[in-house]
């Protein structure tokens, strides 16, 4: 008996759809149309937000069960707790190294470019800043490190799925997959096949939902431009240019990392996931592409166990774009207020951001909360916490930078960890990224002890 998991939904090497059915083209048209509508009819564009919200909610509806099925199948295939532990530890080591580098790189760029120079903001004029930030963040706060780690353990299995808490779902899926692999030798793999079929059902649903992706991207872009306008481009031009320039340079670093440690061309990877990149850009969310990214990375040679563990974990622990942005913004605020941060204060900022950036996922206004905590920790009296409100006009314009770097950063992490753990099919990876035909993935039944004699 064998369990076959079809992933041909991600790529179809046999029949290429007509050009007008290309998701990339549809998203491109939708994004351009959204920008035009938001610019020409800003009030109408701002009212289109429900299109984006509805699409994102549809995707989030199925993310938790997809992660559960993918991780359970991947771990059951590995069937070794030590191997799963190694993948997790290596992923966390990689995340910590690369995000710390992103923070330091952002500080370097901020010190060289000085994006806040010339603003000459008077701290006395920021009296209402705290109120604006409280409204944006809905009076929330980032969880403390201990609370964040404890919250990975769900109060109950049902609550993890009901609240769509991805790390909690991942935690339970790892335990379930290990238990399934442990008891496989004592009984038939009925549960494994059930999980396999359930996963296929949810991936089918994702296929239907993705047909609405252009509509969601159109609504999101029309809302952003209509609500915030393009005038901020001139007011915050230097900051925006600094962040996007730093992102390009950081991606060059990622290109070297993935080439050296995994033998992967970042440019070919970008072309391979261009549909997902455009969708993430259009909706300003990486969560909407999580299921498709997991399919594509598995199709490109990464093991299911590695993909299932690294990608969901990376969405909380490996926010490269967000950490890069935060470190630049700390210097921007200081420079805008005419404050020269010492080396010690900048190192303190890095230390605080190393902690706060790990609990940002899913928290409203998390970037403002992280910056507020960092400024408080620095303890520089000349920089009031209310100064964070200066970024309200430019924050949404940074979403494209953040989601691009976050998404590519997690894809790179998956390839690197898979290669590090010896779970990357390099030959398949090269063929897929080169656009060559590859056979569908077929894995032998993880419950190898279940033989015909035992049936």
TrEMBL record:
Its main location: membrane. It holds the Pfam family SDF. Keywords: Membrane, Symport, Transmembrane, Transmembrane helix, Transport. The chain crosses the membrane at residues 23-41, 61-79, 91-113, 152-180, 201-224, 236-262, 324-348, 368-392. The keyword RNA-binding does not apply. It is a multi-pass membrane protein. InterPro entries: Na-dicarboxylate_symporter (IPR001991), Na-dicarboxylate_symporter_CS (IPR018107), Na:dicarbo_symporter_sf (IPR036458). It is found in: Membrane. This is C4-dicarboxylate transporter DctA. It comes from Nocardia vinacea. The lineage of its organism: Bacteria, Bacillati, Actinomycetota, Actinomycetes, Mycobacteriales. The gene is dctA.
């Amino acid at each position: 008996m064998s369990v076959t998991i079809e992933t041909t939904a991600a790529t179809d090497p046999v029949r290429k759809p007509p050009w007008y059915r290309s998701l990339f083209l549809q998203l491109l048209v939708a994004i351009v149309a959204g920008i035009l509508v938001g610019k020409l009819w800003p009030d109408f564009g701002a009212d289109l937000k429900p299109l984006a919200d509805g699409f994102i909610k549809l995707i989030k509806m199925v993310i938790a069960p997809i992660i559960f099925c993918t991780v359970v199948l991947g771990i059951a295939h590995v069937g070794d707790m030590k191997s799963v532990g190694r993948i997790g530890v290596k992923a966390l080591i990689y995340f910590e190294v690369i995000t710390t580098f992103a923070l330091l790189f952002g500080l370097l760029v901020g010190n060289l470019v000085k994006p806040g120079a010339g603003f000459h903001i008077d701290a006395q004029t920021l009296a209402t800043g705290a109120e604006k930030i409280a409204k944006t963040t809905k009076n929330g706060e980032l969880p403390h490190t201990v609370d964040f780690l404890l919250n990975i353990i769900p109060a109950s299995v049902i609550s993890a799925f009901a609240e769509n808490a991805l790390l909690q779902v991942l935690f339970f899926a790892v335990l379930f997959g290990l238990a399934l692999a442990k008891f496989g030798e004592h009984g038939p793999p009925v549960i494994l096949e059930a999980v396999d079929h359930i996963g296929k059902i949810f991936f089918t649903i994702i296929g239907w939902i993705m047909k609405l992706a252009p509509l969601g991207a159109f609504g999101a872009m029309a809302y952003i431009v209509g609500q915030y306008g393009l005038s901020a481009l001139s007011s915050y031009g230097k900051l925006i240019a600094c962040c996007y320039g730093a992102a390009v340079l950081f991606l060059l670093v990622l290109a070297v990392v993935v080439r050296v440690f995994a033998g992967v061309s970042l440019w070919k990877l970008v072309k391979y996931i261009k549909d997902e990149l455009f969708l993430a850009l259009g909706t300003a969310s990486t969560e909407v592409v999580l299921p498709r990214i997991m399919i594509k990375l598995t199709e490109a040679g990464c093991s299911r166990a590695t993909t299932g563990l690294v990608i969901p974990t990376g969405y909380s622990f490996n926010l490269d774009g967000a950490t890069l942005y935060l470190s630049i913004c700390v210097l921007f605020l200081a420079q805008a207020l005419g404050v020269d941060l010492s080396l010690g204060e900048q190192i303190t900022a890095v230390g605080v951001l190393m902690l706060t950036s790990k609990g940002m996922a899913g928290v409203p206004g998390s970037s403002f909360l992280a910056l507020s905590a960092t400024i408080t920790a620095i303890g520089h009296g000349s920089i009031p916490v209310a100064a964070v409100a200066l970024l309200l006009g430019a924050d949404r314009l940074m979403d494209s930078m953040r989601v691009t770097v976050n998404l590519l950063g997690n894809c790179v992490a998956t390839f690197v960890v898979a290669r590090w753990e010896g779970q990357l099919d390099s030959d398949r990876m090269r063929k897929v990224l080169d656009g060559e035909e590859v056979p569908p993935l077929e894995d032998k039944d993880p419950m190898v002890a279940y033989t015909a004699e035992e049936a």
